[in-house]
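Support case: adenosine-5'-diphosphate complex. Customer-provided input:
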Amino acid sequence: MPSDVIGAFTEFDIVKTAEMARGLQPEARYLFVVGGSSEFDRWWLAKARADLAAFSKDYETTYLEDLTIDEFVKRAAEFPRDSIVIALTIFKDSAGRNFIPREAIRQISRTASAPIYGPYPTYVDYGVVGGNVVTFESLGMTVADLALDALAGKPISNLESPQTYIADARQLQRWGLPEKNLPPGTVQMFREPTFWEQYWFAVVAALAVITTQGIVITGLLIERRRRRKAEIESRRRLLEVVHLNQSATAGALSASIAHELNQPLGAIRSNAEAAAIILRSERPDLKLIEQILIDIQDDDQRAGDIISRMRGLLKKRSEIDWQEFDLNEVTTSAILILHGEAERKGVVVSSNRPPRALPVRADKIHVQQVILNLATNAMDAMLEMVATERRLVLETTLTRESQVELSISDTGRGIPDEQLASVFEPFYTTKPTGTGLGLSIARAIIETYGGKIWADNRPEGGAVFRVVLPLARSG
Ligand code: ADP
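Agent response - structure generated as follows:
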């Protein structure tokens, strides 16, 4: 170069390319250096021989030169797998054919059975793994900087373009060479972003949604278990409370029930005495005695019924006995239980019912207990009225399509309007010996079976309590 030429220089350090190959293939045992037959090719081969003298000592080294392109291709297919192949330039083969070197390299790399490295960036995408190179971009930048400095009148001197390691990610994959063994700072080309790099946002978002969903579902499951437990506990308590309520009712009714029981028992005794007298006569009237015995049987049956109703009232249960029954039937049996008490208190009990059955699904004894609570309250409320005006009416109807209603109305003093809701509160009572639990238990029972209960005052005086329950499906 004339002495007044200043420029940017490229240094081709073939040893650095070889070191890169060693890093990627630490187990390699063979080294092949490929070069063409042009003057420049031969210069390169000679320089590589000198530069790689130390490096090649660790390998069984072969310089492939003075070959035709076909011979290169053929030899390339025979490289042992544990070989490092360094391609220099092939501007011309031994048969005198001219090449753009990278075109020749492409042909060789197609059949090559070991990875090929090279000192030029233009070899990438032509089947080469990579190498230590000066990119034409960086060379151009260096020259341009020099020119700019010169134009700006700054002092300038020769510069070397920076070297970089480059690698073709597809070739790394082709030969199974791990990315982590590349020299630090290697620029990877044709690298497909990993699944994570491409979709990390969607993955994170999906995981976040799944995790949130998981937390919510777990929370709901825990909540559901707690609710189930609470429901079981509340049922158990309800059963206990209803049983206490039943016992209290039985206690309250015991005087009238005992009185009621006296009637058939008294009749049995009188009939037995009459039969004894008849039998003592000379010609006992056997027809009459037969009739007396039939009466005794009937009275015994009546007494038995009274006792079994009382027993039913006192029966303790550990589970709700769900069954389908006719609400009319339970109303009738409640009236029979109350019959004696009503008589004692001078209350006239009557009932209105539709001709059809009103099936509901619940525990029969529980619904009967509701009726007993409402009816005994009604009778209590009428105590202060004139005896001729004490009337208790139990009425059952089918309201709308799928509900049955039971109303219990009395001719008592009624309930102050502002107390209509609070009478259902536990411990609300206006009676000196009251517990204030009857109505709250009645409400708990009815709500357990999906129904509703509320109180009203009748326009003509007295209170009316209404209970609605869902009609059982078969009805
Ligand atoms: P208790 O009968 O022990 O007082 P309840 O819960 O059965 O408890 O009733 C609560 C209160 O509601 C009664 O004390 C009474 O004041 C009122 N009550 C209930 N039924 C009637 C009714 N038919 N007429 C007027 N008041 C009533």
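The pocket of adenosine-5'-diphosphate is lined by residues 373, 377-378, 381, 410, 412, 415, 423, 428-431, 434-440, 463 (CB under 6 Å).

Case will auto-close in a few days if no follow-up is received.
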